[in-house]
Amino acid sequence: MKTHVLTRFRIIAMALLLGIVLTGCRGGNDVIEDAGPGPEELYALAQNALQGGNYQRAIQRYRELTVRFPFGRHAEQALLDMAYAQHKGGQGESAISSLDRFIRTYPTHPNVDYAWYLKGLINYDLSMGFIRRLFPDQANDRDQQAAHQAFRDFQELIRRYPDSRYIADARQRMVFLRNTMAEYEVEVASYYARRNVNVAALNRARYVLENYPGAPASVDALRIMMQSYERLEMPELAQDTRRVMELNYPDRIEEENERSWFGWLWPFD
After folding, report:
1. What class does CATH assign to 39-109?
2. Confidence bin at 250 (pLDDT 50/70/90)
3. Residues 6+ apart with CB under 8 A from 172
4. Whole-angstrom Cα distance, residue 209 to residue 218?
5. Could you tell me which of 183, 117, 182 has the C-alpha nearest to residue 150?
6. Burial status of residue 124 (CB atoms within 10 A of its CB: 0-12, 13-18, 19 or more)
7. How wide is the angle at C-alpha 115 spanned by C-alphas 179 and 211, nearest 5°?
8. Is residue 148 within 8 Å of 126, Cβ to Cβ?
9. H runs (alpha helix) in 35-111
């Protein structure tokens, strides 16, 4: 009798346990069903928001996708697309952080060259304030750093992915950045020269020739060097600099000679 009662008790206990397990499974399914859209739907929603110009909504959807489905097939591309949405939405620094994370996490992704290009493009756009404010008393350090970083990003793209389809555009932007940075340095040198701080003017002009060879501003850098040597009473170095100018920029020497002659005739400016 005891054995029979014990057996019945065990059967009831097992039935109750099975019921709890099944209920838990159904509850788990309910949680999954109520968790929201799946990765494909989330990605489609994000893409629609991006194409519609709703960048903040796109960023939210991309972020949700990468958090909820970090190992899914859409997660990699979602992180890259989120960086683009952040860029278009005016969140440049956040976009760069997302791109750094993408490059670090997915170094062999087929679109990693685009990540480097986009990173350079964002820093290029951030440097626009620097490019518009070339004068040394107006341009700020942050803008200058963005310009230098954009140049390095494009340089890294070219070094790592020489066959990338973004190379041609990157090269053109690098030329523009280099010429602009050289022009800024010349403006700084001129700033010092006007205040008769000749050693500083000389060093800044020399920096242009050493770091931006061939830039259009090089001729102005040589002119500042020549004037600085003359003011520092170093005639031999001034003459050497003048010979370099005559050899490389003969037209500019003629212009300066004509300007000096006209200035002698009409000294009323």
Report:
1. mainly alpha
2. confident
3. none
4. 6
5. 117
6. buried
7. 25
8. no
9. 39-51, 55-68, 75-88, 92-105
